[in-house]
Amino acid sequence: MSNGHILITRQLTDAAMQAAGELGRELVVGGEQPPDRSWLLEAARGASAVVCTLTEQIDAELLDAAGSDLRVVANVAVGYDNVDTAAAKERGVVVSNTPGVLDAATADLTMALLLGLSRRVTEGDRFLRAGTSWIWGPRMFVGTDVSAGCTLGVVGYGRIGKAVARRALAFDMDVLAHSPSLPTSGEDGSGVSYTDLPTLLRLADIVTLHVPLTEDTRHLIAAEGLRAMKRDALLINTARGGVVDTEALVAALRAGEIGGAALDVFEDEPNVDPRLLEFDNVVLTPHIASAGRATRDRMGTLAVDNVAAVLDGEEALTPVNAGG
What we know:
Helices cover 33% and strands 14% of the residues. It has helices at 14-21, 37-44, 60-66, 85-90, 103-118, 121-129, 159-170, 197-203, 223-228, 246-255, 293-311; strands at 6-8, 27-29, 49-52, 72-75, 94-96, 151-155, 174-178, 193-194, 206-209, 234-237, 260-263, 282-284.
């Protein structure tokens, strides 16, 4: 087994960095910001493992730069659309991700966006910070009652989608769920109803997205789907930016075809389409769904644990593929 160094593309939390230091291998570590591509390619040369984040593209070029000693790419995220898993498999490189450890944090942020948007929290905050003169009135900042017959549509009913559904049920919301692997009718034991995507978009008062970004899910929510939603329905995306067609979303917001949107992720991240800033009924956060202290520790240490397992000749704990 190679004794090559471990490349950690960006500074992780203290707990994760400590765990990496205990592996007894040389560490090559990037900074706080995403690394320059040329630095990344050079730093990968001779690496036995790469611990990366979603901001780095781990493609055939980088895999070839690392060379034959590379055994594992540990992505510090659940989604792994930044990793060319097919190219890794061809080269016998295991790819892992960090599922499970961030379900609760992502579900919490989803509910925060849901409440912030539906009850116009951020809009009210901006109103007061602007120094606007005001007095309470019965028609002021009226929003959506989430606990009064409100239907939540969960698109992507995996671990995170189920965690969101549990929280929504605690708010007495009716919950619809859709995933390609699910039936299009019936219920699960918690009272969540299964349905197809067109029906979910038509019936839901709030739609929340929890699918990975794949060729099948890119622009899953586009013009047709947005037109199918209720005119006062709200859209929440804490999955990946490319799941929503930004052009179509902007057009729908301008036309009043939906009631608003809350986005934690963006198609051209970290760039945010400036047109989204025009709307009072849009809430924007900078990809912070997993940004709980304990959650980020668990993500980083799970990635390190995956590296340790593979370099010790064992199976990865949470593999996306199994290598060659």
